[in-house]
Write a structure and sequence with these properties.
29% of the residues lie in helices and 23% in strands. It is an alpha+beta fold. The protein has a six-stranded mixed sheet with strand order 3-4-2-1-14-13. A six-stranded mixed sheet has the order 5-6-7-8-12-9. It is globular. One of its GO terms (molecular function) is catalytic activity.
Length: 415
């Protein structure tokens, strides 16, 4: 038996140091997507970062001799059920600021393999900056014939609402002697941005998009039609976190979202939803949540005897016996699924179902009414700040309540 994969959600978030956030239920709720790319984790070698129901890849930045803590770092969490469809590509880049992986087209039902890069581009004045865009462009060129791309992360690049494509290139006579014979005209889809500033790294990013025919999702799709800010500080705000795809992948984008500001980081989480058409094998229904059990009753024996005399049971059992199952793991799984379906059908007809009680959401023992009230107030100003990013009074209150919430959270967890 199979379950369909009709979409996949991929999030990216500069978490400004992971610390013990992955132990916080509120944080885990925010990274419940199929794939979660965490940037600037500040984790060292062999970090203890495992979370339930997810596997992970990680990359560390070499710690400077005089540094008090680690910097940089990327962790990618992906759901265990997708393990066979995702490959970590260790050898594509030597950079400590990029992590590449491949989504298999057959597993996820994509037109082409999808190459995803979790990326952090340091500011140009950072000692960790090393011709990042040149290296990224080289890696994209190496993989370009193999599939499509999705780049997600913190680019420290402000592009305002400048075009990431060559405008009217199909009608521009002046370009005909420059462009190659196999050049494809750009798909011209306008983009908006609340950030009206462009910086040198932003121009580098736009040049990369034009040369590699990549398109920025921010400000283009349902969920972020305004081009919301992705970074907030006391001094201001900007758009520096992006999802960028191959132009040919745009038709597979369901929507793109910039989440509301969170006290977990000064960056907003961004989420991309892609259309898929894959099939996920349910080995013995291992991935299916069952909320009941079958209960044998006084009448079950008689009902079962009557049911075993029905014609459909003979037909199903005969079909099972006549089926030629391959001597492989897939063949074994298929045989198990068929016989299990027969047993389950009989159980539904002969036994009573007893439903499990729903477990209440666990509330951490350090939370109380004051904490919830403070968090509610913070969430209110978080939404206001996203809607009015240039309102100084809202920004001040947002950071005031953010600081209070972090302080109260730390204090109560120690009790």
């Amino acid at each position: 038996m199979f379950s369909s994969i009709d979409s996949i959600s991929i999030s990216s978030w500069n978490v400004h140091g992971l610390g013990q956030k992955h132990r916080d239920p509120d944080f885990l709720e925010l990274i419940n997507h199929d794939i979660n790319i965490l940037i600037e984790t500040w984790k060292g070698v062999e970090p203890d970062v495992q979370i339930p129901e997810y596997n992970y890849y990680c990359k560390q930045r070499t710690k400077a001799n005089k540094a008090k803590r680690n910097s940089g770092g990327i962790i990618v969490y992906y759901k265990k059920k997708f393990e066979k469809g995702i490959t970590y590509l260790k050898n594509v880049t030597k950079s400590q600021n990029r992590l590449w992986m491949k989504l298999d087209k057959s597993f996820f039902g994509l037109q082409d393999d999808l190459y995803i890069c979790g990326i952090y581009i340091p500011p140009k004045n950072s000692p960790h900056y090393n011709n990042e865009y040149e290296g990224l462009e080289s890696e994209i060129s190496f993989l370009s014939s193999k599939g499509n791309f999705l780049l997600m992360g913190d680019f420290n690049s402000r592009v305002s609402n400048y075009s990431d494509f060559v405008a009217n290139d199909e009608n521009n006579i002046n370009l005909t002697h420059i462009l190659p014979d196999n050049y494809k005209s750009d798909f011209q889809l306008t983009r908006k941005s609340q950030d009206k500033i462009i910086n040198p790294q932003g121009r580098d990013l736009l040049d990369l998009c034009v040369s590699a025919q990549l398109r920025i999702l921010n400000g283009r799709f349902i969920g972020d039609l305004l081009g919301n800010m992705t970074f907030f500080s006391m001094k201001g705000c900007s758009v520096v976190d992006y999802a960028i795809t191959s132009e040919s992948l745009l038709s597979s984008v369901n929507y793109f979202i910039v989440k509301t500001p969170s006290y977990f980081s000064d960056h907003n989480q961004i989420v991309t939803h892609l259309k898929c058409d894959g099939k996920l094998p349910n080995i013995n229904n291992i991935n299916k949540k069952i909320d009941f059990e079958f209960k044998w009753t006084n009448t079950s024996k008689l009902l079962l005897e009557n049911e075993l005399n029905e014609k459909y049971i003979y037909e199903e059992l005969n079909n099972f016996q006549q089926t030629n199952f391959e001597n492989t793991q897939d063949g074994l799984n298929r045989a198990t699924d068929l016989i299990s379906d027969i047993y389950i059908t009989l159980s539904h007809k002969c036994m009573r179902k007893r439903y499990f009680k729903k477990k209440r959401k666990r509330i951490s023992n350090w939370t109380d009414s004051n904490f919830f009230a403070l968090r509610s107030t913070f969430n209110l100003y978080s939404k206001k700040l996203k809607l009015s990013p240039f309102d100084q009074s809202i920004r001040l209150k947002y950071f005031f309540y953010s600081k209070q919430l972090k302080t109260v959270s730390k204090l109560k967890k120690r009790i």
